[in-house]
Amino acid sequence: MGWRGAxxxxxxxxxxxxxxxxxxxxxxxxxxxxGLGLVAPCAxxxxxxxxxxxxxxxxxxxLPQAWAQALVCAALAALAVPICAVAEDCLKKKDDGRIxxxxxMLYPIATIxxxxxxxxxxxxxxxxxxxxLDVLKPPPARQLQFLPxxxxxxxxxxxxxxxxxxxNWGLFLWLWR
Length: 177
Prior knowledge:
Elements: H1 22-31, H2 36-39, H3 44-62, H4 66-91, H5 101-106, H6 121-136, H7 141-144, H8 149-176
Helix pairs in contact: 1-4, 4-8, 6-8
């Protein structure tokens, strides 16, 4: 799973400050899901996804149009790439499991257009689907993790979220009948 080949950061301890500048520290803080990835006792990706739930629900309420949600999701995905790259550089470990910006910033992709605020049971359902597909990473998602830096951290989750979007919509339409 994860990175294949020699880890370019192997044996290097993280910087004591997790970034030498305020911007780098901000990237680590955002990159680890507001620090959740650093303190999670286990499954940092799952804990780090929790802010994404709040973002998805807020988008559902503030921007009920699917196209508007998609635009915000595209911006979040683009922003996640440099945040993850800087966090990886500061933590000194290739595709560090504590980095969860790829989970929480891309989480809303899998809920685009779904009425989360009006149908609260969807929040739990989408969370389970999203986490399952993030772990399974169907092709080509798994293969994309081998891209360098923030691209590899984000690209695999981007495709996993697209799969989750299709499954979430299918389940919603099936269960809503």
